[in-house]
Amino acid sequence: MNTAAPELIPENLRRQFREEGWLVLPGVVPPEHLAMMREVCSEMIAGYDAEMDAAGVTQQGINIKGSRYFIANRHQGTRLPEFIYSDVMEQVCRATLGDNAYLFWEQFVVKGPEKGAKFSWHQDSAYVGTPHRPYITCWVTLDDVSEANGTVYLLPYSRHGTREVVPHKQNPETNDLEGYFGDDPGDPVIVPAGSIACFSSTVLHRSGFNRTPNWRRVYLPQYSAEPLLRPDGKLAAFAEPFIVDGKRVR
User: Could you tell me the pTM of the whole model?
Assistant: First the structure.
């Protein structure tokens, strides 16, 4: 049953998503969900820090203590599904994907005070490796975001000139995939905590350094209109059904 407020995503924002590939919803995350995601994020960071301390290291994979954390696909056994499968996210999925939505991926992306790294221009679809229908990234702010603390910048389809996946090159220093080398700086997302920037996996985006003395935390669930497969035919990540043939199943 659809119980979210029908005015959450008005027609002008739906049209913007269709035409430009993204929309922004300031301050729509319920306070209890925002508090929960902050709590889970803190617990997971503490867990990684404890593991690094026990091993006598300051880096574990791509996580660097006190600097940056990518905590992916750990929602099972936590309270995160309360938000992942919430009324708000149902509205977002219906407005952007239509009658079918599956959780594909989820992660926390955290930039530490005065240390968080930047990320190059890329399309999320470039990381999948096989042809697929575009999926959506929901960039959920757990803190106020600005250009100073490393917010995301989006390049609308009309300025990029295509909505197709473009060739990407791997940066040998960071291993980031890079897909745009032009002069357009993109549009920065400047919103308070509890906001959602939703963009297609074919929208080019980047993010800057965190130059502030505070943490910049983002939760990032991604949803697809169908299960996404790797080149070997296996699931690329999750394919947890949320909306199937127009019916909410979670």
Answer: 0.93
Residues 226, 124: Cα–Cα separation, whole Å: 16
Residue 149 contacts by C-beta under 8 Å, 6 or more apart in sequence?
111, 116, 143, 210, 211, 212, 214, 216
pLDDT tens digits along 24-81: 999 999 999 999 999 999 999 999 999 999 999 998 877 888 888 999 999 999 999 9
Question: What's the rounded Cα separation, in Å, for the pair 195 and 29?
Answer: 6
With vertex at residue 92, the alpha carbon angle to CA 91 and CA 94, rounded to the nearest 5 degrees, is 65
1 within domain boundaries: no
* Domain count of the fold of the chain: 1
What is the rounded distance in angstroms from the CA atom of residue 141 to the CA atom of residue 153? 14
Cα separation, 164 vs 172, in Å, equals 24
CATH of the domain at 21: 2.60.120.620
Is 79 part of any domain?
yes
Q: Residue 201 belongs to what domain range?
A: 6-248
CA distances to 56, 62, 139, 210 from 152, in Å: 33, 19, 9, 11
> What pLDDT does residue 4 have?
42
> What's the full length of the chain, in residues?
250
Q: Which letter, b or e, does each residue of 116-144 get, where b requires 16 or more Cβ atoms within 10 Å of its Cβ?
A: bbebbbbbbbbebeeebebbbbbbbbbbb
